[in-house]
TrEMBL record:
Species the sequence originates in: Tropicimonas sediminicola
PANTHER family in the cross-refs: GLUTAMYL-TRNA(GLN) AMIDOTRANSFERASE SUBUNIT A, MITOCHONDRIAL (PTHR11895:SF7), TRANSAMIDASE (PTHR11895)
Protein name: Amidase/6-aminohexanoate-cyclic-dimer hydrolase
Keyword Acetylation set for record: no
Matches recorded under InterPro entries: Amidase, Amidase_CS, Amidase_dom, AS_sf
Phylogenetic placement of the source organism: Bacteria, Pseudomonadati, Pseudomonadota, Alphaproteobacteria, Rhodobacterales
Pfam families in UniProt: Amidase (PF01425)
SUPFAM superfamilies: Amidase signature (AS) enzymes
Keywords: Hydrolase
Domain Amidase intervals: 25-457
Length: 485
């Protein structure tokens, strides 16, 4: 009998290759998990079992993850065979005329895509409670808490053991927030490391990028090796890798200079559990031979960057809604988009062309300041979040106060003050699951590296995984389902 939970995606692919289990049997397990768990967590939508079985029958590509069940986020990753809601009633059931580059590369790896995972409308929240799904997505570690957003469904599905890895995307922390909340590994690669086309030239002025949520660092390395690189006509290219992500995780990074920040980047305190997590990680890194010193990027205008980020994202939300309404030829109906989106549209109407360009320049200036800070440090270590996973409802989309929702004292940036910094700077950043509260809630630790130094960052994350393994930790929600049961 196969112990599905004991294997990461890479190990499952090896079992398929050796003939010890079939792609169809793995798909059966994943679908049984959906049936058993999705009613409680509401993470998997747009099921496409028939498509998945057809692709298995036709013969999967001989890729490194051949036969492994996989889920796409219900936002982006456009694919002909997989309609998408984009987290919104306005976009429900959207179909695409061609595959995106990121999906085509995932398919070439031999993955068996059988559905999508929930996301907040337009991807603009740190919780996943979109009305189009009929209720909130819940955290498998505590059903009263959010798994995060915007890749919240992906985080919940992986944490619950439905799949060992899932697609996500990250425009302000949308891979790293749910990875932190769900006890998973998540990395945002250097800007332009992964393809955006052909549907998007650059997401949110270059701040958004695809990514993955995984239980093992190895799975993220394999997925990144299979998907990185510019697609046809890409406007930007990341610095070339020296080797592969898989090779990087098998090598020690060597002694690193690590800056420790146990407050926000503006000096505000964080929740005691988040501070405890990062201080414990710092002690572990010192035991591993790294040099850790207290430091924070005081020269970088984080508050100004957050305001610019808010304006840019409002304009992106407004543009997507406006294009959808124009394409169908009738005005927006009441209730088709949620309150925060209506607030974003109203705010975007006040953002002039001059202000938008100023915001892009502010974001770029922030990246220069962060890179200057990193001249004296190889890694910037901080909490991933300022608090443990938030209760369901705290970041619901009912409010139309878009600016307050993001920048208010109890808003998104107070809850998640670290992650968006590296979408703005373009630097690679990752969260590792090294800490759990006494109540059993995961609390991630955040690591960021210089622009283009993805391999060094992955090497360090793998070293931490070896020093303090987390793969065996499981939320209480999980119920084992064996092959053939």
């Amino acid at each position: 009998m196969l112990d599905y939970d004991a294997q990461d995606a890479t190990a499952l692919a090896a079992l398929v290759e050796r003939g010890e289990v079939s792609a169809g049997e793995l798909l059966d397990i994943a679908l049984e998990r959906v049936q058993a768990l999705n009613g409680e967590i509401n993470a998997v939508v747009m099921l496409a079992e028939e498509v998945a079985r057809r692709k298995i029958a036709e013969g999967l590509p001989e890729g490194p993850l051949r036969g492994v069940p996989f889920l796409l986020k219900d936002l982006g990753a456009e694919a002909v065979d997989y309609p998408c809601n984009n987290g919104s009633r306005l976009f429900a059931g959207t179909r695409y005329g061609q595959d995106s580059a990121i999906y085509a590369r995932l398919a070439a790896m031999g993955l068996v895509v059988f559905g999508r995972t929930t996301a907040p409308e337009g991807g603009i929240g740190p919780a996943t409670e979109a009305a189009v799904y009929g209720g909130p997505t819940r955290n498998p570690w505590d059903l009263s808490r959010t798994p995060g957003g915007s890749s919240g469904g992906a985080g919940a599905a992986v944490a619950a053991g439905i799949v060992p890895a899932a697609h996500g995307s990250d425009g302000g922390g949308s891979v790293r927030i749910p990875a932190s909340n769900c006890g998973l590994f998540g990395l945002k690669a250097t800007r332009a490391r992964l393809p955006d086309g052909p549907y998007v030239g650059e997401g949110w002025a270059g701040m958004a990028i695809d990514g993955f949520l995984t239980r093992s660092v190895r799975d993220s390395a394999v997925l990144l090796d299979g998907t990185h690189g510019a697609d046809l006509g890409a406007p930007y290219r990341a610095p070339p890798l020296r080797g592969t992500f898989r090779a990087a995780i098998e090598q020690a990074p060597g002694p690193l200079r690590i800056a420790l920040c146990d407050t926000t980047f503006t000096g505000a305190p964080v929740h005691p559990e988040c501070r405890r997590a990062v201080l414990d990680a710092a002690a572990l890194l010192e035991e591993m031979g790294h040099h850790v010193v207290p430091a924070r990027p005081v020269a970088a205008d984080t508050a100004g960057m957050m305001r610019a980020w808010t304006d840019i994202v409002a304009c992106g939300a407004a543009l997507s809604v406006r294009k959808a309404v124009a394409a169908r030829g009738r005005p927006l109906a009441e209730g088709e988009v949620e309150g925060v989106t209506r607030g974003a549209i109203a705010h975007a109407a006040q953002v002039t062309g001059d202000r938008y360009l100023e915001c892009v320049n502010i974001v770029h200036a922030y990246g220069r300041s962060m890179e200057a800070f990193m001249l004296d440090h190889d890694i910037l270590l901080s909490p991933t979040m300022a608090e443990p996973p938030a209760p369901i409802g705290r970041f619901g989309h009912g409010t139309e106060d878009y600016v307050g929702y993001r920048t208010g004292p109890e808003g998104v940036f107070a809850y998640s003050p670290f992650t968006a910094a590296f979408n703005a700077s373009g630097q690679p950043a990752a969260t590792v699951p090294l800490h759990w509260t006494e109540a059993g809630l995961p609390v991630g630790v955040h690591l960021a590296a210089r622009f283009g130094e993805d391999e060094r960052l992955m090497s360090l994350c793998a070293e931490l995984e070896r020093a303090r393994p987390w793969f065996g930790r499981r939320p209480p929600l999980m119920r084992p389902v064996e092959a053939g049961s």
